[in-house]
Amino acid sequence: MKAVRIHEFGGPEVLKYEDVPEPQPxxxxxxxxxxxxxxxxxxxxxxxxxxxxxxxxxxxGLDVAGVVDALGQGGVFFQPEEEVFAKVSxxxxxxxxxxxxxxxxxxxxxxxxxxxxxxxxxxxxxxxWQCLFDIAGLEKGQSVLIHGAAGGVGTFAVQFAKWKxxxxxxxxxxxxxxxxxxIGADVVINYTNQNFEDIxxxxxxxxxxxxxxxxxxxxxxxxxGGFLVSTVASIPEGAAEEHGVRAQTLxxxxxxxxxxxxxxxxxxxxVKPIVTTILPLSDAQKAHxxxxxxxxxxxxxxxxGEDPM
Length: 309
Ligand SMILES: NC(=O)c1ccc[n+]([C@@H]2O[C@H](COP(=O)([O-])OP(=O)(O)OC[C@H]3O[C@@H](n4cnc5c(N)ncnc54)[C@H](OP(=O)(O)O)[C@@H]3O)[C@@H](O)[C@H]2O)c1
Known about the structure:
Layout: E1 2-6, E2 16-19, E3 29-39, H1 41-47, E4 58-59, E5 63-71, E6 83-87, E7 98-102, E8 106-108, H2 115-119, H3 122-135, E9 143-146, H4 152-164, E10 167-172, H5 177-182, E11 187-190, H6 196-199, E12 203-208, H7 212-216, E13 222-230, H8 239-243, E14 246-249, H9 256-267, E15 275-280, H10 284-292, E16 299-303
Parallel strand pairs: 9-10, 9-12, 10-11, 12-13, 13-14, 15-16
Antiparallel strand pairs: 1-2, 1-4, 3-5, 3-7, 3-16, 5-6, 6-8
The structure holds NADP nicotinamide-adenine-dinucleotide phosphate (NAP).
């Protein structure tokens, strides 16, 4: 099969579109014929060696949507030809024509959208869901400040928070202000010419996907007992107690049951994956260059097969 692998860590040029053996499903696993693969910042962080010395060569990619093609022995919840989406483990490979995944990591894809939009969901959708609901416990009527709202995680977070009935404040640059209002943000702060800490206050939850100064300044906008959750920053020891709030760094879990919940919300037409760029699998280098700019809107997806929708 065709796949995009790395044989060494480095720049986008280490991504090689090449022939590799098809994977075989083991016990409890399904094999997916991939139609579309999502791109995440984690992919280029892995490629650069920022995530550690992982075994090489490695097929890149974590998010897939496609069709169940073969079943491993026992314990699998799917039938051949079912349309699924999944977050695969590092090294299993999403940038490929086939991948294998434990069946607990997959779910039936939303009926109302195609494979391209479904492939945009797993990492970013799960990250947003787990930050807002599993970690921070966001509830109807509460307020949430979402940093990096125009990105992959942010566009899901804005829509999930709105679906829950929260008041949503978002940060983005000027070109994304009207867009974020159109997907449900109540207030959008242009971080290029406004200080969010002068505008937002008394928030129940802050979701930080940016880190650095943005993370450091977020403590002060929370109400006492509020929750700061970050996808990027480690929480300095004692900082939450010092500020009288709670705080946690996300480690996204691959969870087929949560993907199924997200699929339901999408099929209620309350949330829509925002895909702004679709490229062929062979253009993974370009996809990484775009993602590394840190200013893409929504998601980039690689097309592997033919999406009928
Ligand atoms: N811990 C985990 O398990 C986990 C899971 C998922 C993601 N992550 C991490 O979370 C981060 C975000 O992921 P992502 O997929 O959302 O990334 P992304 O799609 O690349 O985010 C790009 C967005 O960030 C916005 N942005 C950049 N600088 C900003 C700033 N100073 N203030 C506000 N917005 C800013 C940009 O908006 P403008 O163009 O308007 O500036 C752009 O829309 C990444 O570092 C990723 O690796 C971690």
